[in-house]
């Protein structure tokens, strides 16, 4: 199977996924093998939500929409053009996936396969319904993928390299267990936004997408703000208001109530609007329904601070304050070449 075959298969997969990127689901009879797989994937989406309450139909559809927009010829070719695939010797690459948001390990999955390697997937118990079904679809439309995709719940054995995502604690275990193997080990990271007080209402509303999408559970979700001294939070809270129905989700509401009670009993100062609390804190990772903030006096000093703490930060959202920062509302819409932790997965896979 050559590279173009693999690209063609993923383009077809993108067309299949695209049918599930809206709430209503749109059955397109022109999609390859749709009569065999459409209803089955609807069922897997239902099972995914029943198994994990955070995986709402809306959030699963949002994830699928992003992948359907990425898996087209133009985007894939733009992604892969800088690399040379001619001399790849197929290896077995193990992937240990997180389960915080729907299909969070999908980029690693397609990267391994499109590079010409075989993949051994160890999924999180929180996200185990969607990817195996998509793998079956992939094998059906491109039979040469058969034998290259394995899912396991057992101890990983017989592999040549590994990509593992987990917490700071599990990463230490991964680094010890996989020593001697080529590896990418990902740790906890969070995303931040830098506000100057000059943001428009539209930009602050867009920022709310970066904060609340997937209930804030993704590493690309903004969990902390840097704001100038004496920043007026009224406009910020106004920009968030369209997300107020989020408090009607039981799991989110339970976290909101619990964390609010903890903060009040601890006599922490906080601001809240009925569905989000903001608390002054130097940490990067805030609990669900909470956003941390930190004041700054000097933008240049803040830029230096952010650079020095880059190992804790996945994305920086700003209006051009930081070079290569992400625009408001775009953190959950990465391109194929926006690599997690800024580690080039394809370059790694081509040299193992």
UniProtKB/TrEMBL annotation:
The keyword Metal-binding does not apply. Pfam families: LuxC (PF05893). InterPro entries: Ald_DH/histidinol_DH (IPR016161), CoA_reduct_LuxC (IPR008670). Keywords: NADP. SUPFAM superfamilies: ALDH-like (SSF53720). It comes from the Bacteria. Coiled coil: none annotated. GO terms for biological process: bioluminescence. It comes from Gelidibacter algens. This is Acyl-CoA reductase LuxC.
């Amino acid at each position: 199977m050559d590279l173009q075959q693999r690209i063609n298969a993923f383009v077809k997969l993108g067309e299949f996924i695209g049918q599930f990127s809206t709430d209503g689901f749109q059955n397109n009879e022109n999609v390859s093998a749709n009569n065999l797989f459409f209803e089955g994937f609807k069922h897997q989406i239902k099972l995914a939500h029943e198994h994990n309450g955070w995986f709402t139909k809306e959030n699963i559809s949002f994830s699928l929409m992003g992948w359907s927009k990425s898996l087209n010829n133009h985007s894939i070719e733009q992604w892969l053009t800088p690399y040379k695939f001619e001399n790849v010797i197929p290896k077995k690459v193990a992937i240990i996936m997180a389960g915080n948001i729907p299909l969070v390990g999908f980029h690693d999955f397609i990267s391994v396969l499109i590079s010409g390697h075989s993949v051994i997937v160890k999924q999180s118990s929180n996200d185990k319904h969607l990817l195996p079904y998509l793998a079956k679809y992939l094998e059906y439309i491109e039979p040469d993928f058969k034998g290259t995709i394995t899912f396991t719940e057992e101890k990983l054995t017989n592999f040549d390299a590994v990509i593992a995502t987990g917490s700071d604690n599990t990463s230490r275990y991964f680094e010890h267990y996989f020593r001697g193997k080529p590896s990418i080990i990902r740790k906890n990271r969070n995303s931040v936004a830098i506000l100057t007080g000059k943001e428009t209402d539209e930009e602050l509303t867009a920022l709310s997408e970066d904060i609340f999408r997937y209930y804030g559970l993704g590493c690309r979700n903004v969990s902390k703000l840097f704001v100038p001294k004496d920043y007026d939070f009224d406009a910020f809270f106004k920009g968030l208001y369209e997300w107020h129905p989020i408090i009607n989700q039981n799991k989110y509401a339970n976290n909101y109530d619990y964390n609010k009670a903890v903060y009040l009993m601890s006599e922490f100062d906080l601001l809240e609007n009925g569905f989000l609390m903001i608390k002054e804190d130097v940490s990067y990772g805030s609990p669900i329904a909470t956003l941390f903030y930190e004041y700054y006096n000097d933008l240049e000093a803040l830029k230096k601070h952010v650079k020095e703490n880059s190992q804790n930060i996945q994305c920086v959202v700003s209006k051009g304050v930081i070079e290569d920062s992400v625009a408001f509302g775009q953190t959950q819409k990465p391109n194929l070449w926006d690599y997690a932790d800024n580690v080039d997965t394809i370059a790694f896979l081509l040299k193992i």
